[in-house]
Design goal:
16 strands, alpha/beta, globular, seven-stranded mixed sheet, single chain
Length: about 375
């Protein structure tokens, strides 16, 4: 095992040469980022008013062929998508147990309760089969067509699948189930900008999708997120609520309803405009790195996780499945000793104190991934062309 671990570290060191520490995923900056951020500082419009907020939204909308509203974090985007979908106190929202905690936290912000389901091993995302079983055996539709829990009769307002590490879940089947049961579909595509299923961008299959531009994402605004909307009306409503519900007026400050200060500052948006300009170069670099990983692990006991059929992954974080829990831990510790950053999967949501008592399906696949999955360094090469 020691020789095998050494060969993995040597291979990764070859991917990222001349580095004393190899990060899991670091941003790639060029002169353009510096120029646009400096231009923003010199303009003095560094907060929520400025040209780059509009430009970033416009260019994201063009890229995704859908209206987009940018906000100050992916968590804010998800919270707002849930609010816009009508999720409120004592409602339920279906999601997966293997996800970053923000997915469930945003549900809790609404006073709602997550329903935790297992994932598929092939996609690492919400299992369409487990979802179908849950809906068929644990819910009913009332006389108004609202999907409700069999036991406590609470409304199930939304379903939030998460595209784990930029891999697409079985979103086509999940979308069909949500339509059948009259449940709003909100895609947590925080990690999936640049990924697609059946040539359709992830985040555009439901009424809403969510992106994150945190510092470790494929492109970054430092901190930030976006709400992808199906309609212009939803986008207009999202913009209104995320800018403190301020009624447009040349002089007066009037807020006719509860709003949220979720605005993305112009300074962050300037960084996003520069990053988005080289997204295709970043994706190409990450695809090349993923292909090298796939080839290296082809005959290894550590199994590389490839994109599901009929999908394209952005390869945000590449991952392998170790042959055992002990091998997983050995790889993590060996990598740390050699200044190579790797990480296991998140702790599943049902192990966290605030979500341990909510409904959960059987979690065979989630538990397997907790014991076997390791994320590998996945930064775009520093030689990504500048713009």
């Amino acid at each position: 095992m020691s020789a095998q671990l050494s060969s993995i570290i040597d291979f990764i060191s070859g991917l990222y040469p001349n580095k004393d520490f190899i990060a899991l995923h670091e941003p790639s900056f060029s002169q353009l980022e510096k120029d646009l951020v400096l231009r923003t500082i010199e303009s003095t419009f560094v907060s929520s008013v400025g040209e780059y907020v509009d430009e970033f939204e416009h260019k994201l909308s063009e890229r995704l062929a859908a209206p987009v509203i940018v906000v100050n974090s992916g968590t804010s985007a998800l919270h707002m998508a849930l609010v816009l979908s009508g999720v409120g106190r004592d409602d339920k929202v279906i999601t997966q147990a293997l996800t970053f905690v923000a997915t469930c936290n945003a549900i809790a912000y609404c006073g709602a309760e997550p329903v935790l389901l297992d994932v598929d091993l092939g996609t690492l995302g919400l299992s369409a089969d487990v979802l179908a079983d849950y809906l068929a055996n644990h819910t009913y539709q009332d006389e108004s067509g609202v999907c409700r829990d069999n036991t406590d009769h609470k409304a199930i307002r939304a379903c939030v699948p998460m595209h784990t590490f930029g891999l697409s879940c079985d979103i086509v089947k999940i979308a069909a189930l949500c339509e059948q049961y009259h449940i709003e579909l909100i895609e947590d595509a925080a990690e999936a900008l640049g990924s697609s299923s059946w040539q359709k961008p992830l985040g555009t299959f439901g009424r809403f999708g969510v992106l994150s531009f945190n510092g470790n994402k494929t492109i970054t605004t430092g901190a930030g997120g976006a709400i992808i909307c199906r309609t212009a009306e939803d986008a207009k409503r999202a913009k209104f609520l995320t800018t403190t519900a301020k009624q447009a007026d040349a002089f007066e400050y009037y807020h006719p309803e509860l709003g949220y200060n979720y605005r993305m500052p112009n300074l962050n948006a300037a960084l996003g405009v520069a990053q988005l300009a080289k997204l295709d170069d970043i994706l190409a670099s990450k695809q090349a790195i993923a292909q090298q990983y796939q080839h290296f692990f082809k005959d290894s006991e550590f199994k590389f996780i490839s994109a599901p059929a009929n999908t394209v992954a952005n390869n945000w974080l590449n991952a392998v499945l170790a042959p055992s829990k002990e091998a997983k831990q050995a790889l993590l510790e060996f990598a740390k000793q050699h200044n190579v950053m790797m990480r296991p999967a998140w702790q599943p949501m049902y192990r966290l104190p605030m979500y341990q008592d909510v409904y959960q399906s059987k979690m065979a696949n989630t538990e397997y991934l907790i014991d076997h999955l390791v994320n590998l360094p996945s930064s775009a090469q520093l030689g990504v062309p500048t713009c």
